[in-house]
């Protein structure tokens, strides 16, 4: 597909004008960032893996009736997506204590939570994506109460789906974040899952060993990030079982 006008560039992806009105081309970069982009690196092959993994999860969501922005994968690094009006919130679902909730509440990492907990962060890199309450969200007009109720329900459905996918291949879904946007159909808004679902946006631990298979490998200097992502892709059947990162992953169409 010919390169088109750049619409937006983030830390891990670039959005280009799509071939049809109401579409974008989403390009996955090899860049890795942590601690609000204070730590940066280029990880060879990361964008290829995340493109394919996000395709796998978005297709799975579609199959179980969870609306999302994905249309099709175009090539190794690009996918065609629907244009959505992004709600400026990160929606975080936590199944076990890790990361900021451990720090905030003094919970030991890995502590099972009494039920999945949904949190919201305001999307603003300059502010460090601060945690916000539903009261903030409604007061500042980022979303209405009905939107919030629908977002929580959508996030919990995604959690059920992802937890099952990972549990089947021996991986614990500790937590994840998604973005949700609006699309307009006959002048009526509809909420859909947007952005990406990949090890960049999930905490994933091997059930038996506790080995981390997500971006914490990069954050905490625990090894090769691409090897961790390749292991996730291989377990899910996205890569052949005999592939290693060093062998340059070949994707299954």
Automatic annotation (TrEMBL):
Q: Name one GO biological process term.
A: cobalamin biosynthetic process
One Pfam family name is SAICAR_synt
Give the top-level enzyme category: ligase
CC terms in the record's Gene Ontology section: cytosol
| UniProt-listed Enzyme Commission number(s) | 6.3.2.6
InterPro entries tied to this protein: SAICAR_synt/ADE2_N, SAICAR_synt_PurC, SAICAR_synth, SAICAR_synthetase, SAICAR_synthetase_CS
The domain of life is: Bacteria
Keywords (alphabetical) are: ATP-binding, Ligase, Nucleotide-binding, Purine biosynthesis
Q: SAICAR synthetase/ADE2 N-terminal domain: from which residue to which, for each copy?
A: 6-235
The answer on whether this UniProt entry bears the keyword NADP reads no
Catalytic activity, as annotated: 5-amino-1-(5-phospho-D-ribosyl)imidazole-4-carboxylate + L-aspartate + ATP = (2S)-2-[5-amino-1-(5-phospho-beta-D-ribosyl)imidazole-4-carboxamido]succinate + ADP + phosphate + 2 H(+)
PANTHER family, per database record: MULTIFUNCTIONAL PROTEIN ADE2, SI:DKEY-6E2.2
Family assignment from sequence similarity: Belongs to the SAICAR synthetase family.
Q: What is this protein called?
A: Phosphoribosylaminoimidazole-succinocarboxamide synthase
Q: Which organism encodes this protein?
A: Tranquillimonas alkanivorans
């Amino acid at each position: 597909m010919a390169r088109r006008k750049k619409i937006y560039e983030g830390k891990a992806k670039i959005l280009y004008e799509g071939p049809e009105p109401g579409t974008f081309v989403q390009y996955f970069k090899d860049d890795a960032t942590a601690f609000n982009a204070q730590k940066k690196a280029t990880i060879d092959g990361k964008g290829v893996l995340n493109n394919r993994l996000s395709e796998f999860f978005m297709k799975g969501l579609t199959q179980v009736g969870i609306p999302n922005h994905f249309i099709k994968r175009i090539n190794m690094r690009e996918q065609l997506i629907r244009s959505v009006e992004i709600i400026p919130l990160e929606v975080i679902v936590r199944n076990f204590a890790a990361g900021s909730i451990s720090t905030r509440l003094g919970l030991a990492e890995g502590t099972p939570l009494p039920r999945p907990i949904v949190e919201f962060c305001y999307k603003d890199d300059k502010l460090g994506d601060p945690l916000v309450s539903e009261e903030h969200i409604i007061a500042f007009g980022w979303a209405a109460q009905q939107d919030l109720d629908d977002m929580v329900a959508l996030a919990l459905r995604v959690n059920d789906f992802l937890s099952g996918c990972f549990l089947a291949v021996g991986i614990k879904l500790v937590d994840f974040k998604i973005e949700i946007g609006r699309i307009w159909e006959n002048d009526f808004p509809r909420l859909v899952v947007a952005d990406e679902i990949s090890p960049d946006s999930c905490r994933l631990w091997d059930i038996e060993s506790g080995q981390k298979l997500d971006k914490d490998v990069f954050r905490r200097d625990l090894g090769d990030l691409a090897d961790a992502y390749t292991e996730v892709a291989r377990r899910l059947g996205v890569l052949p079982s005999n592939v290693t990162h060093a062998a340059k992953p070949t994707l299954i169409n």
